């Protein structure tokens, strides 16, 4: 334990170093991801050129496509070219969509982005307060009910919940649109209203994990000495729980919210298909079915980059919440 | 109820606190009574499981479930001279007592402060909970409190987090926090147990000096009779949820009237006493056996199974017997001691 505290300037320097280390780590992870994505696509069975051209193509057609795609060059050269293009933001050209992969992905980004955002908000809004109350009233009827429901929610596949929601809320009661994204030229409000049901079906399922973590983390801190100190100061129970206990319980909860958000991006693949949303998920599904390698490759990279970015953001949140990280 | 003598700040009268789990009842505090006078220190002494901490948590009404006060009174004379029974006070009124009238410090300075807030924030929160002052004024008060507990460079320390301080500094900060609203009674639950001996002495000095300056009363919970000699005016010795001996500190150290207290004193290692004439070191003198489970107390005197003076009389439990002026003992044989 340092007898004297670090002066303000020094602690800011340490904070800067923490951010810098996380940034470096993020770049290292991305480099590895790019390499793995490159290798996976190259070792996938079958000659991409042959697959793309179909069974009726002549050997000459295949050979010329191979040259055009650069597949006849040594693997290390291919890697260099791939990497060089990537650094320029070039993810290649889609084989079927007649446009750059990046453009194709960007066109589909909006529904996926908002779907993920809404799902995580719904999950957090349900799971965090319920988790806190569950821990506070541990063993009560409320706790037992919440834990059981959470287990139920965790075991429901989100696409199934989606289908049920469509059946009841959209088809029978007509409260929400059944599927799609409002068609061309739809207003933002219309577009977003198409996201409510899918966001609920994804959010409810992922709330289970967040709830369990919140409950466990709260149980850990509720018996801590500083919580007793807070009570001995004469403040209300609500303030003890929220200001003193929950903030300490927040750190593991942040981690799991981050992981859940990242999982949602990939979980969106199925849900988008169920709800007919024109998002990145459904783009990937159709690309896989058509062997549109550049699109698959690009989407993998974007999803991985999102994962890494979310983790970085969580690390930065730690910095805000926990002073022990700062010094 | 208001017949509390004017010099008494706190009167615990036949307090009973039980922990009930199913049909099993742990009588952690079983009929405890004592007085705390204005400006004086009462030490409650006992081993772990004797009920001393449960007594202090009962007074603060900070028992965790399934602990419950099932009987007795906790009479407290508030600053406005009203006498309140804390055992029956509604929770909302109790919040006005905690921190403002009765404050508490704890055993573990490393974990008793919230790691996510600065020392200043934690003291200011206490002030602002009980008094309608601005942030700036609360900060001035917090700084004054740190100076009062002799933390150097108080202004800078206000903005530090607990993990940047040593154990002794944190316990000082904790005392500053507890005294921020000028309470009439400070409950100190083993405040020096987790500290080095030299730091222990500093904290005891500090508490004594603050008591002289501010005039608060202290209820000091400890298992260490050495500390008791340093700080207490009156001593309450607890065993298995009951008071077994009660006396002024001088009377108690002069002449212990209960074999348990005698055993506790003999437990304190003493470098000169514990040497044989040959200079050879002698063995420590622990009390044989251990505290009985509160769920399975022996019939009769609960100390009897560990007592060397036991007779057939001890099969029935004595009440507190007068063993001298202001000296009570729960032992049939106190006269032979």
UniProtKB/TrEMBL annotation, chain B:
Residues 10-265 form the ABC transporter domain. CDD domains: ABC_NikE_OppD_transporters (cd03257). PROSITE patterns: ABC_TRANSPORTER_1, ABC_TRANSPORTER_2. SUPFAM superfamilies: P-loop containing nucleoside triphosphate hydrolases. Keywords: ATP-binding, Cell membrane, Membrane, Nucleotide-binding, Transport. Signal peptide: none annotated. It comes from the Bacteria. One of its GO terms (molecular function) is ATP hydrolysis activity. One of its GO terms (cellular component) is plasma membrane. The keyword Cell membrane applies. It is found in: Cell inner membrane. It is a peripheral membrane protein. SMART domains: AAA (SM00382). Pfam families: ABC_tran (PF00005), oligo_HPY (PF08352). InterPro entries: AAA+_ATPase, ABC_Ni/Peptide_Import, ABC_transporter-like_ATP-bd, ABC_transporter-like_CS, Oligopep_ABC_C, P-loop_NTPase. GO terms for biological process: peptide transport; transmembrane transport. Belongs to the ABC transporter superfamily. PANTHER family: DIPEPTIDE TRANSPORT ATP-BINDING PROTEIN DPPD, OLIGOPEPTIDE TRANSPORT ATP-BINDING PROTEIN APPD. This is ABC transporter ATP-binding protein. It comes from Microvirga alba.
């Amino acid at each position: 334990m340092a007898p004297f505290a670090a002066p303000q300037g020094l602690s800011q320097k340490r904070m800067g170093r923490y951010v810098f280390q996380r940034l470096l780590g993020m770049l290292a992870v991305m480099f590895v991801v790019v390499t793995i994505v490159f290798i996976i696509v190259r070792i996938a069975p079958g000659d991409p050129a042959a697959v793309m051209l179909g069974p009726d193509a002549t050997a000459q057609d295949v050979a010329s496509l191979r040259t055009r795609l650069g597949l006849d060059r040594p693997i290390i050269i291919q890697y260099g070219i791939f990497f060089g293009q990537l650094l320029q933001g070039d993810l290649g050209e889609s084989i079927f969509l007649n446009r750059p992969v990046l453009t194709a992905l960007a066109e589909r980004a909006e529904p996926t982005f908002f779907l993920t955002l809404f799902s995580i908000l719904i999950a957090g809004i349900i799971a965090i307060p319920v988790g806190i109350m569950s821990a506070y009233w541990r063993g009560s009827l409320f706790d037992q009910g919440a834990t059981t429901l959470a287990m139920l929610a965790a075991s429901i596949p989100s696409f199934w919940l989606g289908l049920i929601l469509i059946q009841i809320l959209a088809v029978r009661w007509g409260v929400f649109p059944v599927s799609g994204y409002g068609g061309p030229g739809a207003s933002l409000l219309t577009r977003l209203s198409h996201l409510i049901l899918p966001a609920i079906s994804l959010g409810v399922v992922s709330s289970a994990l967040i709830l369990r973590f919140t409950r466990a983390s709260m149980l850990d801190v509720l018996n801590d000495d500083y919580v007793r100190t807070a009570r001995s100061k004469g403040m209300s129970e609500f303030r003890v729980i929220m200001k003193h206990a929950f903030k300490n319980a927040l750190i593991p909860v942040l981690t799991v919210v981050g992981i859940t958000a990242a999982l949602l991006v990939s979980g969106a693949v199925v849900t988008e298909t169920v709800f007919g949303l024109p998002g990145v998920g459904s783009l990937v599904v159709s690309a896989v079915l058509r062997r549109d390698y550049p699109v698959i490759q690009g989407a993998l990279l974007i999803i991985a980059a999102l994962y890494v970015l979310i983790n970085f953001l969580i690390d930065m949140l730690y910095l805000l919440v926990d002073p022990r990280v700062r010094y | 109820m208001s017949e509390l003598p004017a010099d008494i700040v706190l009167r615990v009268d036949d307090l009973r606190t039980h922990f009930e789990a199913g049909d099993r009842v742990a009588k952690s505090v079983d009929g405890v009574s004592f007085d705390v006078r204005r400006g004086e220190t009462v030490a409650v002494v006992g081993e772990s499981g004797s009920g001393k901490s449960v007594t202090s948590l009962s007074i603060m009404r900070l028992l965790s479930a399934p602990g419950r006060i099932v009987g007795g009174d906790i009479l407290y004379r508030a600053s406005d001279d009203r006498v309140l029974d804390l055992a029956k006070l509604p929770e909302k009124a109790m919040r006005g007592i905690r921190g403002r009238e009765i404050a508490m410090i704890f055993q573990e300075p490393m974990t008793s402060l919230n790691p996510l807030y600065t020392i200043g924030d934690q003291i200011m929160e206490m002030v602002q909970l009980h008094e309608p002052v601005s942030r700036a004024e609360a900060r001035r008060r917090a700084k004054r409190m740190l100076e009062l507990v002799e933390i150097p460079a108080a202004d800078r320390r206000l903005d530090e987090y607990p993990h940047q301080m040593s154990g002794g500094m944190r316990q000082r900060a904790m005392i500053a926090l507890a005294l921020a609203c000028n309470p009439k009674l400070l409950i100190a639950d083993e405040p020096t147990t987790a500290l080095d001996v030299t730091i222990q002495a500093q904290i005891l000095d500090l508490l004594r000096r603050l008591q002289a300056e501010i005039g608060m009363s202290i209820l000091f919970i400890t298992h260490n009779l050495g500390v008791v000699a340093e700080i207490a005016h009156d001593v309450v010795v607890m065993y298995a949820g009951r008071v077994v001996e009660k006396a002024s500190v001088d009377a108690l150290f002069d002449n212990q009237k209960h074999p348990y207290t005698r055993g506790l004193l003999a437990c304190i290692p003493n470098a000169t006493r514990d040497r044989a004439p040959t200079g050879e070191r002698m063995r420590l003198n622990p009390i044989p056996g251990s505290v009985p489970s509160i769920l399975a107390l022996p019939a009769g005197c609960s100390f009897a199974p560990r007592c060397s003076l036991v007779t057939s009389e001890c099969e029935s439990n004595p009440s507190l017997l007068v063993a001298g002026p202001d000296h009570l003992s729960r032992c049939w044989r106190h006269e032979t001691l």
